[in-house]
Amino acid sequence: MGLGLAAGIPFGPVNAAVVDTSMRQCHRTALAVGVGGAFVDFIYSQLAVWGIGKFLKQYPDLSSLLVGASGVVLVIFGLRTLFAPPLREEDRARRLENKALWSAFFSGVLLTLANPAALVSWVVLAGALLSDLTYVEALLAGLGIFIGCTGWFAGIGWLARQGRLRFGQRALWLTKTIGAFIVAYGVFLVGKAGLSVWTLHIR
Questions:
Q1: Which of 53, 34, 55, 36 is nearest to 45 (CA)?
Q2: What would you report as the CA-atom Rg of the chain, rounded to the nearest whole angstrom?
Q3: First CA to last CA across the chain, in angstroms?
Q4: What is the pLDDT of residue 3?
Q5: Rounded distance between C-alpha atoms, residue 91 and residue 81, angstroms
Q6: Confidence (pTM)
């Protein structure tokens, strides 16, 4: 659980999405985004135990493709965040519907999948700390990681909600900043993928 909590702290796309969703919509929907991200972290921790890091090293082109596709997804999401209008109070209630919560969950899943740094982090952390565990022990450790990550996302979502309740529309500058951050990170990933392809095949 402590490992999951620590893994959630670096400010990445899912953290940004949780804060933005809590500010624009509601805390419950933001928590659904965080649960989606925590679920992928759980999967990544299990893949790290199974040795996916060695597989990725054998296929550098696949890694570059994943990074480039991740960048495109993040740019699109960041632009949507940057230019999305604030919701009216009567619209917030609609976001509590099950359909909206599932949509938020899959948004968290997609954003984590679109961030290759998350997979690399778990290859390093889980590969080093969980490699000596049996598969059953690794599964239990993964459940602890899921709980820790979810707890972190719930906490920052709650803090963002308090900011919205206290400052209202004046706090929307934060969501604009978050959108710009995600776009910049996406552009960085696309450039990194292009440089990798250039180095491997063109130069």
A1: 53
A2: 18
A3: 45
A4: 81
A5: 17
A6: 0.71
